[in-house]
Amino acid sequence: MSSANNLSPVAPVANPTIPFWRKEPHELDNIRTTPELPEQSDIVIIGGGYAGVSIAYHLVTSQQSESQPPPSITLLEARQICSGATGRNGGHLRPDVYETVALCLERHGIEAAIELARFEVSHIPAVKAAIAKEKIDCDFNLTRCMNVYLNEEHAERARQAYEVLRDQGASYVDDIHYTSQKNAEGVSGVQDAKACLSYTAGNLWAYKLVMGLLSRVVKSSSVNVQTMTPVTSVTSDSPHHLVQTPRGTIRASKVVYATNAYTAGLLPEYSKNIVPCKGICCHITTPENKTPPFLPYTYVVWNKEGDGDSYLISRPDGSIIVGGAQYSYAQQKDIWHNNVDDSTLIEPAKHYYDTYMQRTFRGWEDSEVKVQEIWSGIMGYSYDTHPQVGEVPGKPGQFICAGFNGHGMPVVFLSGKGIAEMIRDSKKFEEVGLPRIYKTTLARLEAAQTGPEGGDTFDL
Ligand SMILES: Cc1cc2nc3c(=O)[nH]c(=O)nc-3n(C[C@H](O)[C@H](O)[C@H](O)COP(=O)(O)OP(=O)(O)OC[C@H]3O[C@@H](n4cnc5c(N)ncnc54)[C@H](O)[C@@H]3O)c2cc1C
What we know:
The protein has ten helices and 17 strands. The protein is of the alpha/beta class.
């Protein structure tokens, strides 16, 4: 494994596995707007995934004052655009109105929980509207997610948690539908299901979404995008920041870290809060002479032991994207935890999905489907489950939008909007409509430094 910047161990590696989504690179995949880096830029965004591109998109598309010129923006990406988690994910746009919200309710109370649920839910219309506005062809589909439980005790705990949320009277809970064991298999299509919960969700080709947004961004003459340009450090030359790369240094007024799993490589104070964790995902196809059975929903299928899940979407051509299975290798921490190597697969999990559809779904037993492509990707597990968004404590003019805990699709787009408003309009965190629990604070940094190893991270 060699790192793309050869300096920090917490940095993207040079030769990642190739996901299905990136088999045909977009024309902007390795864009360099100019042959050389600019020497100065009002804003430097580090990271060219969903977060970095969303921030740039909202910076260039939001209402600007007529009297002021737009700020100059430079986006730096260590590898190709969207070559990190976003280009390797499961394509599941699933507002987590249930697990994380129930946890948030327990820890922070009802107001914070409702705020979180509403924020995630609002991503569906927001992403749908952006896709329509920018005419992005990314196979977006609006459907329902089936959360399916194969373990009876787990199903019972899910029912109780659902009822606690329902009894709070929050309107978003109206969209959740609980089905008990009697009808769970018939409703979900999952063999031996003990219960299921469904709610509105979407699925899409995230690489194409990000490339579509970037196509709009690069129409602005104030934007310079530079791929294959790893940032090696950011130092302060008050009131400016010096962003160092092997290709030169950029002097910036404001810097944004949209570096998700790799954040600790540049901001070591986040090393306990955002831990790079490796996951796998695959693409399952049907033999050419067969028609794939129809799957109308997206899924999160919890295992029989009740201690882990797989997330799954079906594509318009009937093929399947499925990933997760962390429970099959979780004990071997050295192969996935604090690991940035997406150039290899996860050995104990690489055959897990070979017959997954046949052994999980009703009607798929004789489908003869098989894994066509399998790849790995690096998530930014968050110590306290939630992302870190806002101005970096003790570093004025430096912002973070990272730590999406393997669950970024219904979180990142509007976090990027919030950060864009903070940067461009000098708004406070509290003024940009972000859930309060996302705010990056010294207290959250200290809690991770002093709390138990590993915190309460979990895979969604
Ligand atoms: C296998 C897998 C499956 C997933 N499935 C889902 C799913 O179905 N639904 C869902 O909601 N979420 C899913 N996720 C999580 C989701 O993909 C992420 O939360 C989201 O993509 C994060 O976006 P990002 O832009 O913050 O991170 P990334 O896409 O990782 O982008 C960060 C970028 O920063 C660049 N970078 C890092 N350090 C530097 C540096 N020093 N200099 C320059 N550039 C740098 C990286 O190269 C990278 O391109 C999955 C993740 C994985 C890995």
